[in-house]
Amino acid sequence: MSQSSTDPRLLRAPPKRRLRLSWRDERVRGIVWQVLVVGVIGAIVWWLWSNTVHNLEVRRIATGFGFLSREAGLPIAESLIEYSPTDTYFRALLVGLLNTLKVAVVGIVLATILGTLIGIARLSRNWLLAKLAGIYVEVIRDLPLLLQLLFWYVVLQNLPGPRQALTPVEGIYLSNRGLKLPALVWEAAHGWALLAFLAGIVGTWLYRRWARARQMQDGQPRRVWPVALLLMAGLPVAVWWALGAPWVVDWPVLRGFNFRGGTTITPEYFALLLGLVLYTAGFIAEIVRAGILAVPQGQWEAAEALGLRPAQVLNRVVLPQALRVIVPPMTSQYLNLTKNSSLAVAIGYQDIVSIANTTLNQTGQAIEGIAIIMLVYLTISLSISLFMNWYNARIALVER
After folding, report:
1. Which among 121, 159, 392 has a CA at the least distance from the CA of 270?
2. Which whole number is the average pLDDT over 46-71?
3. What is the three-class DSSP state of 244?
4. Lowest mean pLDDT among 63-77, 118-132, 306-320, 336-350
5. What per-residue confidence (pLDDT) applies to 3?
6. Residue-wise pLDDT tens digits, 343-359
């Protein structure tokens, strides 16, 4: 007997749906609008590009980065590497990049230390200390950064000359020419000792991981500080001693109208660094204070019940937990400090912005000069963000 069309299984089979495109479908509308938006943006970019190329051709303005290999003829007062005006524009821009990094890296470290101390001071039980920290935060954050940079630059420029320089400590002189400090004469042994110190940091980190893994297995804690002291202090000293232990200090000495010897921190760099550190530290202090307050009061009470001193409670219990709240907004402050360093042009410090501006004025390569500045700050900002995101992921609580 053949299977009839009234078979119950056929009656239960769902009917085949045809693919129907309708404007009422939300997915269809979403795809259409996305295609339109991408098309409009692409058309605008193409129009801007073609218009720019046409205008450059009409005005016979050369394009490209070939100017980087030409002689700069640009004097730079402060550089971390050897430079002379006969060098190329590429080397001049490299000097500007290193000057920017010198401000950003040192500024981030100092602002973090100062901001953390001020943030903790705002929560101090000492009434006077807490009020002074609060006044500092409110005053510093309410004044424009550019005004603060100009203030410190004027203060440093009005210091006495080299002959009447201030001498807070023997061998250190502060005048309108900058801050003169003793300098260690760098030799090959110091370079090898520095490499040994970096190797000691890596070795300490590896030993710390191994000690924690072993503690999870047998429950026996192992001290890390003796190994850290041996690797980070003993190993570099041993390498330095084995290579002859050179130790020659170049002391600044007044000769005529200026100092000779030592190392100089110029007024422009000093004013820029001082302004950025003091300004950013005010914001970091509030971030640290908020992170500490975010830790439940029961954590403090439990730690104190175990007999820990207030400093131990803060270092071992509170701050490790507060970091999970502190790190994300702290990243923004690091980025702000790096980008705010571009205000160096206002006080004459030759960073990447100042040198790139001079370069584009001399060569007429405005688009390339602006592109270089944007690329530098974009690269630095992304590097800071990647590192801070990696660190934030390492200290984050993981639910198991």
Report:
1. 159
2. 78
3. coil
4. 306-320
5. 47
6. 998 998 999 999 999 99
**pLDDT (tens digit per residue) in 251-308:** 888 887 788 888 888 999 999 999 999 999 999 999 999 988 888 888 877 887 877 7
Cβ contact 346:272 at 8 Å: no
- Single-letter amino acid code for the residue at 309: R
| CA–CA gap between residue 116 and residue 285 (Å, rounded) | 6
Sequence-distant (6+) residues with CB within 8 A of 380 are 100, 101, 104, 338
The phi, psi pair for 219, rounded to 5°, reads: 75, 5
Q: Work out whether strand 263-265 and strand 178-181 pair parallel, antiparallel, or are unpaired.
A: antiparallel
Around 218, how many Cα atoms within 13 Å sit in the side-chain half-sphere? 6
DSSP annotation of 88 reads: B
Rounded to the nearest 10 degrees, the angle between the axes of helix 89-122 and helix 366-395 is 40
| End-to-end Cα separation, the chain, in angstroms | 62
Structure tokens at 66: 């070939």
CATH class of 89-185+248-390: mainly alpha
| CA angle, 347 then 351 then 355, to 5° | 100
DSSP string, 322-390: HHHHHHHHHHHHHHHHHHHGGGGGGTT---HHHHHHHHHHHH--HHHHHHHHHHHHHHHHHHHHHHHHH
HSE (side-chain half, CA atoms, 13 Å) at 308: 16
pLDDT band per the 50, 70, 90 thresholds, residue 339:
very high
pLDDT of residue 112: 95
DSSP state of 23: T
Cβ atoms of 268 and 103 within 8 Å: the answer is no
What average pLDDT does the segment 241-249 reach? 87
For residue 142, the SS3 value is: helix
Any idea where the domains of the chain sit in the sequence? 89-185+248-390
